[in-house]
Amino acid sequence: MALATVRRNIGTHYSKFASSLSVLSRHSSVHNPIPASVSSFHSQPVGGDGLPSYMRGAVHWEPNKPLSIEDFRMPRPKAGEVLIKTKACGVCHSDLHVMKGEIPFSSPCVVGHEITGEVVEHGALSDSQTIERLPVGSRVVGAFIMPCGSCSYCSKGHDDLCEAFFAHNRANGTLYDGETRLFLRNSGKPVSMYSMGGLAEYCVVPANGVSVLPESLPFTESAILGCAVFTAYGAMAHAAQVRPGDSVAVIGTGGVGSSCLQIARAFGASDIIAVDVRDEKLQKAKIFGATHTVNSAKEDPIEKIFEITGGKGVDVAVEALGRPQTFAQCTLSVKDGGKAVMIGLAQAGSLGEVDINRLVRRKIQVIGSYGGRARQDLPKLIRLAETGIFNLGHAVSRTYTFEEANKAFQDLNEGKIVGRAVIEII
Q: CA-CA distance, 288 to 310, in Å (whole number)?
């Protein structure tokens, strides 16, 4: 065999989910830019009164070295951007990959990319529609993929492929004019931004990547909507297109994987199989919606998945770890015509293997998925959390203070966090 890389209650949950999205469709819309001819612009910044002259941010300087909290000049937004007073920032493996040098990124940089906070300023020349949608004082959540709203992909609604985001932010650590908004207080040295550089007291975010957070949702737990839940939703809704009655396996049940379980349940999946190597994570997976659990350190996950599904395999398998072994397990776990969805980032240069003949003959689909589509999906996720269909309280297991940021990432690296952790910056 030639290997290439990668090996319940349907009615209630689905009807509640469909009802939630029905309400959403009547009260929210995609935040597409409107032509200048029908929109007015503010020549001066809006808000920003009484801001301090500097702030603190957590800086990554070089691989495998601790973050340091540094003083920065107060960042200022430009047209179409908002300055947010950060309230909370999630602890994600993507940041850890950067901090360990496993994923190349410009340094020094401020990490942190799933945030909640309060809008305190709009950049000069921002359009009135944006200012009305996100007035100063608004409680907001930010998505880690921050769409420009005007590139060829964004114009088609594919915010997750935004050309500006990948060309400027992921390639160079800047926003979309090619410049960072972060400068050290004393030296003025520029510092790169991983997404918005959210592990800081203030951050600048393109307005297209931000949605209003209702008063009913807490700042701390809601931070994970911008990455963990956002990534899971993109995988389930767009890549896998999960339907009621589908069988789903999730390999790796950390922050993103456990969110996949909740989304699969919301979409009405029948058999939901959680695969991990830690029994405590698998026990928690049952709370998130898993109907079956498999400890892959103790038994062959592929054999077990086929046993659970009557020898067929699952309709959808999701790989949330980014490892060649689990990549292969994912592709080999799906039924004929099934979808293997890859959402786990790997060390740069990692390759996955797939059985080419099985891929061709049995119509196996291998799909990559990086995240959701901010303008369309983030309001839906907020609504799912607001109605309780997605349980934020179950998803967040630990909190840390801003000064404990290094401990948070150390605990993540050592596998001590079950679910998602959040750093409070209040």
A: 23
The whole-model pTM stands at 0.89
C-beta of residue 147 within 8 angstroms of C-beta of residue 162: yes
Q: Which of 68, 66, 69, 70 has its CA nearest to residue 100? A: 66
CA distance 290 to 11: 17
Task: Specify the pLDDT at position 47.
Answer: 73
Helices (H), 3-72: 10-27
How far, in Å, CA of 291 to CA of 227, rounded?
25
Q: Of all helices (H) and strands (E), which one includes residue 279?
A: helix 279-288
Contact criterion met (CB below 8 Å) for 272 and 265: yes
- How many helices (H) and strands (E) are present in the chain, helices listed first? 15, 21
CA 257, 261, 262 angle in degrees (round to 5)?
Answer: 120
Q: What are the tokens at 170?
A: 């992921």
**Paired tokens of 283:** 């026990």
Give the side-chain half-sphere CA count within 13 A for 317: 32
What's the burial of 231, exposed, middle or buried (CB within 10 Å: 0-12/13-18/19+)?
Answer: buried
Look at residue 48 in the predicted model and tell me its pLDDT: 76
Residue 112, CA distances (Å) to 24, 89, 150, 195, 422 in order = 29, 6, 25, 7, 10
As beta bridge partners, residue 317 has 249, 340
Within 8 A by CB and 6+ apart from 363, the residues are: 336, 337
Mean pLDDT of residues grouped by 10 in the chain (426 residues)? 36 43 39 44 74 96 96 97 98 96 96 98 94 97 98 97 98 97 97 98 98 98 98 98 98 96 97 96 96 98 98 98 96 98 94 95 97 98 97 96 98 93 94
Structure token digits, residue 55: 């702030």
Q: What is the pLDDT of residue 49?
A: 82
